[in-house]
Amino acid sequence: MQSDLCKLLNIQKPILSAPMGGAAGPDLIAAVCGSGGYGVIPLWGQSAEQVIAGIDQVKALTDRNFAVNLNLSFAYEDQLQACIDRKVHAVSLFWGMEPSAIATAKGGGLVVLVSVGSAVEARIAEDAGADVIIAQGWEAGGHVWGQVSTMALIPAVVDSVRIPVVAAGGIADGRGMAAAIMLGASGVWIGTRFLASKEATIHDAYRERILNATETQTVWSHDLYDVDWPDAPHRTLSNSTSRTWREAGSPAPSNRPDEDEIIGYRPNGDAVVRYQSYTPRPGTKGNVEAMSLWAGQGVSLVRSIMSAADIVDEIYRDAKQAMQARQSIL
Q1: What sections of the chain are H helices per DSSP?
Q2: CB 129: neighbour CB atoms within 10 A?
Q3: Cα–Cα dist 94/145, whole Å
Q4: Contact between 186 and 154 (Cβ < 8 Å)
Q5: Residues 255-291 pLDDT 10s
Q6: What are φ and ψ of residue 207, in 5° steps?
Q7: How far apart, in whole angstroms, are the C-alpha atoms of residue 284 and residue 193?
């Protein structure tokens, strides 16, 4: 599986870690890179100085290539320039389609990965100069850009562009990776499985929910956890907040049960209110179960805590074995 993607990113295994805000820090990124994969660190929403500091923290842990993830629905220009100035290998752009951002990144010498939810978006990104398409299926955890399932989206995108396509959404083991490769993807983008890595910076109660969840226990919502990030559809684990909201008829913001109620506190002491877009981290206090517990439909395949490096190795090994085993059937 030494694909064109591997050559472009200079990696051995076409496995990319999803930029899970609040959960994917320098240690996780470095571990994925060190195992032959490709780490993507979320640094959007921070100042340019903080972006530089984050890049330097990863560089202190690994000399391998990695990407910085930027959110195009928030101010990104200064952060993108910081990535160019620090000569990071690549940027991952998501939540919007900005050809000018792609052009700026390319002009600064960066490899550009662009997340899309349709074949049309993929073609626009390619025409603007993108190097890699991240095709995110509806099964994905966290914030979900499109509404097409991974199984249908990947071949549609692969058929529409000439550049490498990475499959995202619901992929959590080697079988999922093998299926994505058979659909034409050059690699996979994995998030939920890495939430159970030793390096993921999430609260123990959140990790425990991940380890015990079934495939039917995630919910997709348009505007549930919209405090701090409105109009951004997402997939999370079902919990007391989502159940109460749905029982009330899924009312719109400003009419939801217990709105503005403080349900906990961040490690720095800042309050966390119900319906806030917030990843519970170690040191979070309060009702963690009621917070936004991001997870994709592949969560039922996550049953053990392992190092991120071991997760990459296991998925890659099992994908190769799955593909070899199926060849004998045909």
Answers
A1: 4-9, 26-34, 48-59, 77-85, 99-107, 119-127, 150-160, 174-182, 204-212, 240-247, 308-329
A2: 16
A3: 8
A4: no
A5: 999 999 999 999 999 999 999 999 999 999 999 999 9
A6: -60, -40
A7: 22
